[in-house]
Amino acid sequence: MAYVIGIDIGTSGTKTVLFDEGGRKLASKTVEYPLYQPFDGWAEQEPQDWWDAAVEGIRAVTAGVDADEIAGVGLSGQMHGLVMLDGDGRVLRRSIIWCDQRTAAECEEITELVGAERLMRITKSPALTGFTASKILWVRAHEPEIFEKCRTILLPKDYIRFMLTGERATEVSDASGMQLLDIERRCWSEEVTDALGIDRGLLGKVYESHEVTGVISKEAAGLTGLREGTPVVGGAGDNAASAVGCGVVEKGRAFTTIGTSGVVFAHSPTLCCDPKGRMHSFCAAVPGEWHVMGVIQSAGLSLRWFRDNFCAGEKEEADKRGVDVYKVMDEVAAASPVGSGKLLFLPYLMGERTPHLDPYARGAFIGLSSTHTRGDMMRAVMEGVTFALRDSLELFSAAGVTVGDMMACGGGASSPLWRQILADVFGCRVRTAASNEGGALGAALLAAVGAGIYSDVREACGAVIGEGVVCDPDPERAKRYDELYRIYTRIYGHLKEEFGALAALGE
Questions:
Q1: What are the tens digits of pLDDT across the range 429-444?
Q2: What CATH number should be reported for the domain holding residue 184?
Q3: 409 within some domain
Q4: Which of 158, 182, 238, 376 is an active site residue?
Q5: Is-contact 114 124, C-beta < 8 A?
Q6: How many CB atoms lie within 10 A of CB 316?
Q7: Does the annotation count 238 as an active-site position?
Q8: 453 three-class SS
Q9: What is the reported pLDDT for 272?
Protein backbone atom coordinates (compact mmCIF):
# COMPACT_ATOMS: atom_id res chain seq x y z
CA MET A 1 0.00 0.00 0.00
CA ALA A 2 1.32 3.42 -0.99
CA TYR A 3 0.55 6.60 0.92
CA VAL A 4 0.52 10.26 -0.07
CA ILE A 5 0.61 13.43 2.03
CA GLY A 6 -1.30 16.64 1.40
CA ILE A 7 -0.10 19.81 3.18
CA ASP A 8 -2.43 22.83 3.09
CA ILE A 9 -0.78 26.05 4.30
CA GLY A 10 -3.76 28.17 5.34
CA THR A 11 -4.07 31.58 6.94
CA SER A 12 -5.18 30.33 10.36
CA GLY A 13 -3.15 27.13 10.34
CA THR A 14 -1.47 24.39 8.34
CA LYS A 15 -3.34 21.13 7.88
CA THR A 16 -1.35 18.00 7.07
CA VAL A 17 -3.20 14.83 6.07
CA LEU A 18 -2.00 11.32 5.29
CA PHE A 19 -4.08 9.40 2.72
CA ASP A 20 -3.79 5.95 1.25
CA GLU A 21 -3.69 5.65 -2.54
CA GLY A 22 -7.47 5.27 -2.62
CA GLY A 23 -7.95 8.67 -0.98
CA ARG A 24 -8.93 7.35 2.46
CA LYS A 25 -7.85 9.70 5.26
CA LEU A 26 -5.61 7.91 7.74
CA ALA A 27 -4.36 10.75 9.94
CA SER A 28 -4.69 14.52 10.13
CA LYS A 29 -2.99 17.29 12.09
CA THR A 30 -3.68 21.03 12.09
CA VAL A 31 -1.27 23.48 13.70
CA GLU A 32 -2.37 27.09 14.14
CA TYR A 33 -0.26 30.28 14.16
CA PRO A 34 -0.79 34.03 14.49
CA LEU A 35 -1.63 36.74 11.99
CA TYR A 36 0.16 40.06 12.52
CA GLN A 37 -1.58 43.36 11.75
CA PRO A 38 0.82 46.15 12.80
CA PHE A 39 -1.27 48.81 11.02
CA ASP A 40 -4.82 49.10 9.74
CA GLY A 41 -5.14 47.18 6.48
CA TRP A 42 -1.85 45.29 6.92
CA ALA A 43 -1.65 41.51 7.24
CA GLU A 44 1.57 39.54 7.72
CA GLN A 45 2.74 36.11 8.85
CA GLU A 46 6.03 34.48 9.74
CA PRO A 47 7.14 31.87 7.18
CA GLN A 48 8.94 30.08 10.00
CA ASP A 49 5.54 29.48 11.62
CA TRP A 50 4.35 27.74 8.45
CA TRP A 51 7.47 25.59 8.37
CA ASP A 52 7.26 24.67 12.05
CA ALA A 53 3.61 23.73 11.54
CA ALA A 54 4.43 21.61 8.49
CA VAL A 55 7.19 19.74 10.31
CA GLU A 56 4.95 19.09 13.32
CA GLY A 57 2.11 17.99 11.05
CA ILE A 58 4.24 15.61 8.97
CA ARG A 59 5.69 14.00 12.08
CA ALA A 60 2.24 13.59 13.60
CA VAL A 61 0.52 11.98 10.60
CA THR A 62 3.40 9.66 9.71
CA ALA A 63 3.93 8.28 13.21
CA GLY A 64 4.08 4.50 12.89
CA VAL A 65 4.14 4.58 9.08
CA ASP A 66 7.05 3.16 7.10
CA ALA A 67 8.61 6.17 5.36
CA ASP A 68 9.45 3.98 2.33
CA GLU A 69 5.70 3.55 1.69
CA ILE A 70 5.09 7.31 1.33
CA ALA A 71 5.04 7.83 -2.43
CA GLY A 72 4.87 11.61 -2.56
CA VAL A 73 4.00 14.95 -1.01
CA GLY A 74 1.63 17.57 -2.43
CA LEU A 75 1.29 21.21 -1.36
CA SER A 76 -1.66 23.57 -1.27
CA GLY A 77 -2.04 26.93 0.38
CA GLN A 78 -3.06 30.54 0.63
CA MET A 79 -2.28 32.43 -2.55
CA HIS A 80 -0.61 35.78 -3.30
CA GLY A 81 1.65 35.99 -0.20
CA LEU A 82 5.15 37.43 -0.67
CA VAL A 83 8.12 35.53 0.77
CA MET A 84 11.56 37.10 0.22
CA LEU A 85 14.82 35.21 0.77
CA ASP A 86 18.43 36.38 0.74
CA GLY A 87 21.28 34.63 -1.05
CA ASP A 88 21.61 32.09 1.76
CA GLY A 89 17.91 31.20 1.67
CA ARG A 90 17.06 33.11 4.85
CA VAL A 91 13.74 34.94 5.18
CA LEU A 92 14.24 38.72 4.95
CA ARG A 93 10.93 39.89 6.41
CA ARG A 94 7.50 38.64 7.40
CA SER A 95 5.35 37.55 4.49
CA ILE A 96 2.82 40.13 3.30
CA ILE A 97 -0.19 37.87 2.76
CA TRP A 98 -3.26 37.79 0.52
CA CYS A 99 -5.61 40.02 2.56
CA ASP A 100 -3.12 42.88 3.01
CA GLN A 101 -4.44 46.15 1.54
CA ARG A 102 -1.48 48.54 1.75
CA THR A 103 -0.59 48.57 -1.96
CA ALA A 104 -3.18 50.84 -3.60
CA ALA A 105 -0.48 53.23 -4.85
CA GLU A 106 1.56 50.36 -6.25
CA CYS A 107 -1.49 49.08 -8.13
CA GLU A 108 -1.81 52.46 -9.81
CA GLU A 109 1.90 52.28 -10.65
CA ILE A 110 1.52 48.81 -12.20
CA THR A 111 -1.41 49.98 -14.33
CA GLU A 112 0.59 52.98 -15.53
CA LEU A 113 3.78 51.01 -16.26
CA VAL A 114 2.18 48.06 -18.05
CA GLY A 115 -1.01 49.67 -19.31
CA ALA A 116 -4.47 48.60 -18.22
CA GLU A 117 -5.30 46.83 -21.49
CA ARG A 118 -2.00 44.94 -21.72
CA LEU A 119 -2.19 43.93 -18.07
CA MET A 120 -5.64 42.45 -18.60
CA ARG A 121 -4.59 40.75 -21.82
CA ILE A 122 -1.56 39.05 -20.22
CA THR A 123 -2.51 38.43 -16.58
CA LYS A 124 -6.32 38.40 -17.04
CA SER A 125 -6.77 40.67 -13.99
CA PRO A 126 -6.56 44.39 -13.26
CA ALA A 127 -3.92 45.42 -10.73
CA LEU A 128 -5.20 44.27 -7.34
CA THR A 129 -3.91 44.98 -3.85
CA GLY A 130 -4.13 41.33 -2.87
CA PHE A 131 -1.82 40.09 -5.64
CA THR A 132 1.92 39.59 -5.23
CA ALA A 133 3.30 42.02 -7.81
CA SER A 134 2.09 45.11 -5.95
CA LYS A 135 3.63 43.75 -2.73
CA ILE A 136 7.02 43.41 -4.44
CA LEU A 137 6.84 47.03 -5.58
CA TRP A 138 5.82 48.14 -2.07
CA VAL A 139 8.89 46.54 -0.50
CA ARG A 140 11.09 48.05 -3.20
CA ALA A 141 9.66 51.52 -2.48
CA HIS A 142 9.42 51.39 1.31
CA GLU A 143 12.10 48.90 2.38
CA PRO A 144 14.85 49.28 -0.25
CA GLU A 145 17.51 47.81 2.02
CA ILE A 146 15.51 44.55 2.19
CA PHE A 147 14.74 44.55 -1.52
CA GLU A 148 18.44 44.91 -2.36
CA LYS A 149 19.22 41.75 -0.38
CA CYS A 150 16.43 39.72 -2.02
CA ARG A 151 17.56 36.85 -4.24
CA THR A 152 14.40 34.71 -4.25
CA ILE A 153 10.67 35.46 -4.29
CA LEU A 154 8.30 32.65 -3.34
CA LEU A 155 4.64 32.08 -2.51
CA PRO A 156 3.69 30.60 0.89
CA LYS A 157 3.35 26.97 -0.15
CA ASP A 158 6.46 27.31 -2.29
CA TYR A 159 8.47 28.36 0.74
CA ILE A 160 7.51 25.02 2.30
CA ARG A 161 8.67 23.34 -0.93
CA PHE A 162 11.99 25.18 -0.62
CA MET A 163 12.42 24.01 2.96
CA LEU A 164 11.54 20.42 2.03
CA THR A 165 13.62 20.17 -1.14
CA GLY A 166 15.92 23.17 -1.47
CA GLU A 167 14.29 23.93 -4.82
CA ARG A 168 13.06 27.40 -5.80
CA ALA A 169 9.94 26.55 -7.75
CA THR A 170 6.23 27.21 -8.14
CA GLU A 171 3.38 25.91 -10.30
CA VAL A 172 0.91 27.48 -12.68
CA SER A 173 -2.26 27.76 -10.55
CA ASP A 174 -0.63 29.62 -7.65
CA ALA A 175 1.66 31.67 -9.91
CA SER A 176 -1.48 32.88 -11.74
CA GLY A 177 -2.28 35.05 -8.72
CA MET A 178 1.06 36.87 -8.68
CA GLN A 179 0.14 39.15 -11.62
CA LEU A 180 3.47 38.24 -13.24
CA LEU A 181 2.38 35.15 -15.18
CA ASP A 182 1.27 35.06 -18.79
CA ILE A 183 -1.92 33.09 -18.10
CA GLU A 184 -2.36 31.89 -21.67
CA ARG A 185 1.25 30.75 -22.16
CA ARG A 186 1.63 29.46 -18.56
CA CYS A 187 5.03 31.10 -18.05
CA TRP A 188 6.46 34.30 -16.56
CA SER A 189 5.62 37.34 -18.67
CA GLU A 190 8.72 39.08 -19.96
CA GLU A 191 6.63 42.11 -20.87
CA VAL A 192 5.16 42.55 -17.37
CA THR A 193 8.32 41.79 -15.41
CA ASP A 194 10.41 44.07 -17.63
CA ALA A 195 7.89 46.90 -17.35
CA LEU A 196 7.88 46.58 -13.56
CA GLY A 197 11.64 46.19 -13.29
CA ILE A 198 11.39 42.79 -11.59
CA ASP A 199 14.28 40.43 -12.29
CA ARG A 200 12.86 37.09 -13.45
CA GLY A 201 15.86 35.43 -11.86
CA LEU A 202 14.19 36.09 -8.51
CA LEU A 203 11.23 33.92 -9.49
CA GLY A 204 11.16 30.13 -9.26
CA LYS A 205 10.81 27.72 -12.16
CA VAL A 206 7.16 27.21 -13.15
CA TYR A 207 5.78 23.66 -13.26
CA GLU A 208 2.41 22.06 -13.92
CA SER A 209 0.62 21.11 -10.72
CA HIS A 210 1.22 17.34 -10.89
CA GLU A 211 4.88 17.52 -11.92
CA VAL A 212 7.66 16.54 -9.54
CA THR A 213 9.47 19.74 -8.54
CA GLY A 214 12.09 18.21 -6.23
CA VAL A 215 12.68 15.57 -3.60
CA ILE A 216 12.95 15.58 0.18
CA SER A 217 16.45 16.71 1.15
CA LYS A 218 18.65 15.03 3.72
CA GLU A 219 18.13 17.91 6.13
CA ALA A 220 14.34 17.90 5.70
CA ALA A 221 14.27 14.11 6.09
CA GLY A 222 16.00 14.45 9.44
CA LEU A 223 13.47 17.03 10.63
CA THR A 224 10.28 15.42 9.30
CA GLY A 225 10.97 11.70 9.34
CA LEU A 226 10.25 11.44 5.62
CA ARG A 227 12.56 9.38 3.43
CA GLU A 228 15.26 11.36 1.65
CA GLY A 229 14.38 11.41 -2.05
CA THR A 230 10.58 11.32 -1.60
CA PRO A 231 9.04 13.27 -4.52
CA VAL A 232 7.36 16.65 -3.90
CA VAL A 233 4.98 17.77 -6.67
CA GLY A 234 3.94 21.25 -7.73
CA GLY A 235 0.62 21.21 -5.89
CA ALA A 236 -1.84 24.07 -6.32
CA GLY A 237 -3.21 27.27 -4.85
CA ASP A 238 -5.95 26.71 -2.29
CA ASN A 239 -8.97 26.91 -4.58
CA ALA A 240 -7.36 25.02 -7.45
CA ALA A 241 -6.39 22.27 -5.00
CA SER A 242 -9.90 22.23 -3.56
CA ALA A 243 -11.22 21.79 -7.10
CA VAL A 244 -9.15 18.64 -7.46
CA GLY A 245 -10.23 17.56 -3.98
CA CYS A 246 -13.91 17.64 -4.96
CA GLY A 247 -13.53 16.47 -8.55
CA VAL A 248 -14.07 19.76 -10.38
CA VAL A 249 -11.62 18.97 -13.18
CA GLU A 250 -13.85 18.75 -16.26
CA LYS A 251 -15.94 21.08 -18.44
CA GLY A 252 -19.28 21.93 -16.87
CA ARG A 253 -18.14 21.17 -13.32
CA ALA A 254 -18.00 23.86 -10.64
CA PHE A 255 -17.97 24.36 -6.90
CA THR A 256 -19.11 27.04 -4.52
CA THR A 257 -17.61 27.58 -1.09
CA ILE A 258 -19.53 29.35 1.65
CA GLY A 259 -16.95 30.08 4.28
CA THR A 260 -16.24 33.49 5.78
CA SER A 261 -16.00 34.69 2.20
CA GLY A 262 -17.66 32.99 -0.75
CA VAL A 263 -16.15 31.51 -3.90
CA VAL A 264 -17.65 30.26 -7.13
CA PHE A 265 -15.15 28.28 -9.20
CA ALA A 266 -15.66 26.63 -12.59
CA HIS A 267 -13.33 24.49 -14.68
CA SER A 268 -12.81 25.38 -18.33
CA PRO A 269 -10.80 23.57 -21.02
CA THR A 270 -10.32 26.92 -22.77
CA LEU A 271 -9.13 30.28 -21.47
CA CYS A 272 -12.07 32.62 -20.86
CA CYS A 273 -12.06 36.00 -19.16
CA ASP A 274 -14.16 39.01 -18.31
CA PRO A 275 -12.74 42.11 -20.05
CA LYS A 276 -13.59 44.24 -17.00
CA GLY A 277 -11.65 41.97 -14.65
CA ARG A 278 -14.64 41.22 -12.44
CA MET A 279 -13.69 37.55 -12.19
CA HIS A 280 -10.35 35.76 -12.03
CA SER A 281 -9.11 33.59 -14.90
CA PHE A 282 -6.26 31.35 -13.72
CA CYS A 283 -4.41 28.24 -14.86
CA ALA A 284 -6.04 25.07 -13.57
CA ALA A 285 -4.29 22.15 -11.88
CA VAL A 286 -5.16 20.14 -15.00
CA PRO A 287 -2.34 20.68 -17.54
CA GLY A 288 -3.25 22.96 -20.43
CA GLU A 289 -6.61 23.98 -18.95
CA TRP A 290 -7.95 26.88 -16.90
CA HIS A 291 -10.52 27.92 -14.33
CA VAL A 292 -12.60 30.99 -13.64
CA MET A 293 -13.43 32.21 -10.17
CA GLY A 294 -15.55 34.86 -8.50
CA VAL A 295 -15.20 35.93 -4.88
CA ILE A 296 -17.60 37.69 -2.52
CA GLN A 297 -16.30 39.18 0.70
CA SER A 298 -19.05 38.34 3.21
CA ALA A 299 -20.72 34.98 2.66
CA GLY A 300 -20.77 33.01 5.91
CA LEU A 301 -19.61 36.22 7.57
CA SER A 302 -23.04 37.72 6.86
CA LEU A 303 -24.89 34.94 8.66
CA ARG A 304 -22.35 34.98 11.51
CA TRP A 305 -22.88 38.75 11.86
CA PHE A 306 -26.63 38.16 12.12
CA ARG A 307 -26.10 35.34 14.63
CA ASP A 308 -23.84 37.41 16.86
CA ASN A 309 -26.12 40.44 16.94
CA PHE A 310 -29.69 39.17 16.73
CA CYS A 311 -29.91 35.52 17.69
CA ALA A 312 -29.75 35.38 21.48
CA GLY A 313 -32.94 33.28 21.51
CA GLU A 314 -31.54 30.77 19.03
CA LYS A 315 -28.31 30.53 21.02
CA GLU A 316 -30.28 29.78 24.18
CA GLU A 317 -32.35 27.14 22.40
CA ALA A 318 -29.20 25.55 20.94
CA ASP A 319 -27.62 25.37 24.41
CA LYS A 320 -30.72 23.67 25.80
CA ARG A 321 -30.73 21.06 23.03
CA GLY A 322 -26.97 20.63 22.89
CA VAL A 323 -26.79 21.44 19.18
CA ASP A 324 -25.01 24.02 17.06
CA VAL A 325 -26.79 27.38 16.92
CA TYR A 326 -26.73 27.27 13.12
CA LYS A 327 -28.95 24.17 13.21
CA VAL A 328 -31.56 26.10 15.16
CA MET A 329 -31.20 29.09 12.82
CA ASP A 330 -31.70 26.74 9.87
CA GLU A 331 -34.96 25.52 11.34
CA VAL A 332 -36.20 29.05 12.02
CA ALA A 333 -35.24 30.30 8.55
CA ALA A 334 -36.82 27.26 6.87
CA ALA A 335 -40.23 28.35 8.25
CA SER A 336 -39.96 31.55 6.19
CA PRO A 337 -41.30 31.36 2.61
CA VAL A 338 -39.19 31.41 -0.54
CA GLY A 339 -38.11 35.02 -0.98
CA SER A 340 -38.43 35.74 2.77
CA GLY A 341 -41.72 37.56 2.31
CA LYS A 342 -40.27 39.80 -0.45
CA LEU A 343 -37.31 40.82 1.72
CA LEU A 344 -33.91 41.17 0.04
CA PHE A 345 -30.44 41.45 1.61
CA LEU A 346 -27.26 42.89 0.11
CA PRO A 347 -24.32 41.00 1.72
CA TYR A 348 -21.73 43.74 1.22
CA LEU A 349 -20.67 44.03 4.86
CA MET A 350 -16.97 44.23 3.93
CA GLY A 351 -17.25 45.91 0.54
CA GLU A 352 -17.37 43.63 -2.50
CA ARG A 353 -15.14 42.03 -5.12
CA THR A 354 -17.19 40.11 -7.70
CA PRO A 355 -18.77 41.69 -9.62
CA HIS A 356 -18.58 45.23 -8.23
CA LEU A 357 -14.94 45.70 -7.15
CA ASP A 358 -16.18 48.30 -4.66
CA PRO A 359 -14.57 48.67 -1.22
CA TYR A 360 -17.29 51.17 -0.19
CA ALA A 361 -20.28 48.89 -0.86
CA ARG A 362 -22.23 48.05 2.31
CA GLY A 363 -24.97 45.69 3.40
CA ALA A 364 -28.67 46.49 3.34
CA PHE A 365 -32.08 44.95 3.91
CA ILE A 366 -34.48 46.03 1.17
CA GLY A 367 -38.24 45.72 1.53
CA LEU A 368 -38.31 45.45 5.32
CA SER A 369 -41.79 45.85 6.80
CA SER A 370 -43.52 45.42 10.15
CA THR A 371 -44.71 41.98 9.06
CA HIS A 372 -41.20 40.53 8.77
CA THR A 373 -39.81 38.26 11.47
CA ARG A 374 -36.31 37.38 12.57
CA GLY A 375 -36.70 34.14 10.60
CA ASP A 376 -37.47 36.12 7.45
CA MET A 377 -34.32 38.14 7.99
CA MET A 378 -32.23 35.01 8.53
CA ARG A 379 -33.50 33.47 5.33
CA ALA A 380 -33.02 36.77 3.47
CA VAL A 381 -29.36 36.75 4.51
CA MET A 382 -28.91 33.23 3.12
CA GLU A 383 -30.75 34.11 -0.08
CA GLY A 384 -28.86 37.40 -0.49
CA VAL A 385 -25.50 35.65 -0.20
CA THR A 386 -26.66 33.11 -2.78
CA PHE A 387 -27.77 35.87 -5.16
CA ALA A 388 -24.32 37.44 -4.78
CA LEU A 389 -22.74 34.07 -5.65
CA ARG A 390 -25.02 33.80 -8.68
CA ASP A 391 -23.51 37.06 -9.94
CA SER A 392 -20.33 35.07 -10.60
CA LEU A 393 -22.23 32.41 -12.54
CA GLU A 394 -23.75 35.12 -14.72
CA LEU A 395 -20.24 36.43 -15.50
CA PHE A 396 -19.08 32.88 -16.27
CA SER A 397 -21.95 32.40 -18.69
CA ALA A 398 -21.22 35.69 -20.45
CA ALA A 399 -17.59 34.57 -20.85
CA GLY A 400 -18.66 31.26 -22.39
CA VAL A 401 -18.20 29.02 -19.36
CA THR A 402 -21.22 26.76 -18.82
CA VAL A 403 -21.98 25.11 -15.50
CA GLY A 404 -24.21 22.05 -15.32
CA ASP A 405 -23.14 20.64 -11.99
CA MET A 406 -22.22 22.36 -8.72
CA MET A 407 -20.37 21.05 -5.68
CA ALA A 408 -21.06 22.79 -2.36
CA CYS A 409 -18.19 23.21 0.10
CA GLY A 410 -17.43 25.10 3.29
CA GLY A 411 -19.52 25.63 6.40
CA GLY A 412 -22.58 26.78 4.49
CA ALA A 413 -22.71 23.45 2.65
CA SER A 414 -23.54 21.70 5.93
CA SER A 415 -26.93 23.48 5.97
CA PRO A 416 -29.67 21.50 4.19
CA LEU A 417 -31.66 24.70 3.72
CA TRP A 418 -28.75 26.62 2.23
CA ARG A 419 -27.90 23.74 -0.13
CA GLN A 420 -31.48 23.78 -1.43
CA ILE A 421 -31.40 27.56 -1.83
CA LEU A 422 -28.19 27.18 -3.86
CA ALA A 423 -29.83 24.60 -6.14
CA ASP A 424 -32.96 26.70 -6.62
CA VAL A 425 -31.13 30.02 -7.20
CA PHE A 426 -28.45 28.51 -9.45
CA GLY A 427 -30.96 26.35 -11.30
CA CYS A 428 -28.71 23.28 -11.27
CA ARG A 429 -28.00 20.16 -9.25
CA VAL A 430 -25.94 20.84 -6.12
CA ARG A 431 -23.90 18.04 -4.55
CA THR A 432 -21.53 17.62 -1.67
CA ALA A 433 -18.39 15.48 -1.78
CA ALA A 434 -18.11 12.40 0.41
CA SER A 435 -14.81 13.80 1.75
CA ASN A 436 -14.50 17.32 3.15
CA GLU A 437 -10.71 17.41 3.07
CA GLY A 438 -10.67 19.85 0.14
CA GLY A 439 -7.27 21.36 -0.54
CA ALA A 440 -5.30 18.74 1.39
CA LEU A 441 -6.93 15.91 -0.60
CA GLY A 442 -6.41 17.78 -3.85
CA ALA A 443 -2.72 18.27 -3.06
CA ALA A 444 -2.39 14.60 -2.14
CA LEU A 445 -4.06 13.48 -5.38
CA LEU A 446 -1.63 15.63 -7.36
CA ALA A 447 1.17 13.88 -5.47
CA ALA A 448 -0.37 10.52 -6.40
CA VAL A 449 -0.31 11.52 -10.08
CA GLY A 450 3.29 12.72 -9.82
CA ALA A 451 4.28 9.47 -8.14
CA GLY A 452 2.71 7.42 -10.93
CA ILE A 453 -0.13 5.93 -8.88
CA TYR A 454 -2.57 7.50 -11.34
CA SER A 455 -1.90 8.47 -14.93
CA ASP A 456 -3.49 11.92 -14.73
CA VAL A 457 -5.56 14.22 -12.55
CA ARG A 458 -8.92 13.14 -13.96
CA GLU A 459 -8.17 9.47 -13.39
CA ALA A 460 -7.19 10.23 -9.79
CA CYS A 461 -10.40 12.15 -9.14
CA GLY A 462 -12.53 9.48 -10.81
CA ALA A 463 -10.99 6.80 -8.61
CA VAL A 464 -11.19 8.69 -5.32
CA ILE A 465 -13.90 11.38 -5.21
CA GLY A 466 -17.22 10.11 -3.88
CA GLU A 467 -20.60 11.82 -3.82
CA GLY A 468 -22.40 12.93 -0.67
CA VAL A 469 -25.80 14.64 -0.53
CA VAL A 470 -27.58 15.67 -3.76
CA CYS A 471 -30.08 18.56 -4.11
CA ASP A 472 -32.05 19.10 -7.31
CA PRO A 473 -33.66 22.48 -8.09
CA ASP A 474 -37.42 22.84 -7.73
CA PRO A 475 -38.84 24.50 -10.89
CA GLU A 476 -41.41 26.63 -9.04
CA ARG A 477 -38.94 27.90 -6.45
CA ALA A 478 -36.35 28.49 -9.16
CA LYS A 479 -38.84 30.62 -11.10
CA ARG A 480 -39.59 32.72 -8.02
CA TYR A 481 -35.90 33.19 -7.31
CA ASP A 482 -35.32 34.31 -10.91
CA GLU A 483 -37.86 37.09 -10.38
CA LEU A 484 -36.26 38.16 -7.11
CA TYR A 485 -32.75 37.97 -8.54
CA ARG A 486 -33.63 40.39 -11.33
CA ILE A 487 -34.72 42.91 -8.69
CA TYR A 488 -31.65 42.18 -6.55
CA THR A 489 -29.25 42.95 -9.41
CA ARG A 490 -30.70 46.46 -9.83
CA ILE A 491 -30.37 47.52 -6.19
CA TYR A 492 -26.60 48.04 -6.07
CA GLY A 493 -26.71 50.45 -9.02
CA HIS A 494 -29.24 52.61 -7.17
CA LEU A 495 -27.17 52.65 -3.97
CA LYS A 496 -23.59 52.81 -5.26
CA GLU A 497 -23.36 56.60 -5.17
CA GLU A 498 -24.84 56.71 -1.66
CA PHE A 499 -22.36 54.12 -0.41
CA GLY A 500 -19.55 56.37 -1.65
CA ALA A 501 -21.14 59.41 0.00
CA LEU A 502 -21.37 57.59 3.34
CA ALA A 503 -17.71 56.58 3.11
CA ALA A 504 -16.72 60.20 2.41
CA LEU A 505 -18.32 61.41 5.64
CA GLY A 506 -15.41 60.13 7.71
CA GLU A 507 -15.65 59.21 11.36
A1: 999 988 878 899 999 9
A2: 3.30.420.40
A3: no
A4: 238
A5: no
A6: 12
A7: yes
A8: coil
A9: 93
